[in-house]
Hints:
Elements: H1 2-15, H2 21-57, H3 61-109, H4 113-116, H5 129-168, E1 172-177, E2 180-185, H6 187-207, H7 210-233, H8 235-241, H9 244-282, H10 286-296, H11 302-319, H12 321-324, H13 326-347, E3 357-363, E4 368-375, E5 389-391, E6 396-400, H14 407-415, E7 421-427, E8 432-435, H15 446-451, H16 461-470, H17 484-487, H18 493-507, E9 511-515, H19 523-536, E10 541-545, E11 557-560, E12 566-569
Parallel strand pairs: 3-7, 6-10, 6-11, 8-9, 9-10
Antiparallel strand pairs: 1-2, 4-5, 4-7, 11-12
Helix pairs in contact: 1-13, 2-3, 2-5, 2-11, 3-5, 5-11, 5-13, 6-9, 6-11, 7-9, 7-13, 10-11, 16-18
The protein binds adenosine-5'-triphosphate.
Adenosine-5'-triphosphate binds at residues 120-121, 377-379, 383, 403-409.
Amino acid sequence: MLIILKRIWRLTLLAFSGRAKWRGLGLYGVVLALQFVGVWFGVQLINQNRAFYDALEQMNAPEALKQIGVFFFIISISASSFLIGTWLQENLQMMLRTRLTELALERWMAGRAYWHLRAGYSPNPVDNPDQRIAEDSNNFNELLLYLTLGFISSIVSLFTFVAVLWGLSDFALSFTLFGFDVVIPRYMVWTAFIYVALSTWITHMLGGRLKSRYFMQERREADFRHALMQLRENAEIVARAGGEEAEHRRMADRFRAIQKNWRMVINQQLILGLFTRPYNQTVLRIPTFLSTPAYFAGNVTLGGMMAMASAFSQVTTTLSWFIFQYRRLAEFAAVSERLDGLFAATRDLAPMPDVPRAITHRVEGTDLILRGVQLFTPKGEALRPVPFLHLGAGARVWICGPSGQGKSTLLAAISGLWPYGAGDITRPKGKLCFLPQGPFTAADSLAGMLTYPDDPADTDAAALAAALTAVGLSDRISMLETGGAQSIAGLSQGEQQRIAIARALLAQPDVLIMDEATSALDPVAERQMLSMIRQHLPQAMVICVAHRAPTGLDITQTLALGEGGRELAG
Ligand SMILES: Nc1ncnc2c1ncn2[C@@H]1O[C@H](COP(=O)(O)OP(=O)(O)OP(=O)(O)O)[C@@H](O)[C@H]1O
């Protein structure tokens, strides 16, 4: 329980941090004050209720009519204050969500947490970060406001309505038990407390395990969504492999996991509902039934009885806040756990334990120097030692070697991304451009893909068109502003690689790193593209990983990784 509260507290401090902190706290105060106004109107309604029924009992028509007017007056003002409060609360919710989302995104990008915290790369991988950032930071704020405001105003209501009930129920319950005369003064007040304490305990017993079930449900929903997303991203591969059945099976498995957990959730909800549903329905009637002995004994008027019934139900309603909010409280705990988990993981990007992390990485001068480099996989397996390499400005190296020897890992180490290994890496200063096998398709437009990660607005359309023409894709010039996926729809793998090459031409980097970036092109086109790179970027150092010799690039050096790895003269 303490752990849950600490998590909530940490997240609350984050949500109420930054520039809008005081505005946020101020708004919270106003919303809370409006809730207190609502409690005050509740008391006025009890008084009105009493006066109205007393007027009925006394057959006082003008007074009853007056009380009807009072009723509508109170309702219209309290409704307005309620609506204004809700509107302000929703504004505050967006404000807090904005802050928390900003922070979550900041942390997710800082230190490349999104890269480190993947399964297989980190001892504490973060599952479904998209759900945590997009949904949980919204749900957290909604529940935070709803539950804390509800809780505080319930406490205030409780004291207020207990005082009202205390004042109204100044009569005792007398009966004989085992020959003893028992007198319970103000029994309506005590009954309310005992009634709710008992109910709360039963609710907790019946619904205790729901929290972990809700948590699991969210996770399974996210896994299912993720599988569907993967199908969308790999539509081409699945369709060509005729993988519909396998995909269907995978989706069905994930959906079955949802169903299984859902069944447990609803069974537990049913058990909880067996108690809470009748409880909800009886809570408004019980006080009337309980006060009938006092009414028949002449201790209380009809108006007094009705007012007492209202006060009693207000007391029990506020006391039973915990029962009514049980599901939300469980959800709140689950959401906080996920969101706090994300922040905790990003605070400390813990590396894999017991794997060496002794690479000295420098960015200086104009040369690339690899000295005594030995890389490891995140599991701690040593890759082939990397031979000594010294590349001067404008040099072009081909890194080759059998699959799985660590070529891509070496590129990641040169970029400063790969933490596992030992040795010295000195990389030249200046702009670095990395070309993977495919283009970056998540950009919002083709122009965005061509200039990634720079802002497309900073490059003029003529330059973009020239780059597309240079790589033989002039027919896509008209689609520069079209959405990412749509603008490359129908392009072959080789054509997609041409887009990535156009990006390198536009970037004019000092160091160009290519990882199988021309693997899908035919040898003639590959030679053409590579010689164009050489001509357009004559000063750039090019580091090229490829299985076949990058003819056209006019390589100056070759680095062979793997059995008998050695640096060869170009
Ligand atoms: N996160 C990881 N967890 C476990 N092993 C990993 C991880 N990342 C890389 N490896 C392993 O490190 C080795 C080198 O991988 P890398 O991708 O660098 O090879 P490569 O030489 O580029 O292969 P290819 O030519 O097939 O692209 C492989 O055996 C790979 O399985």
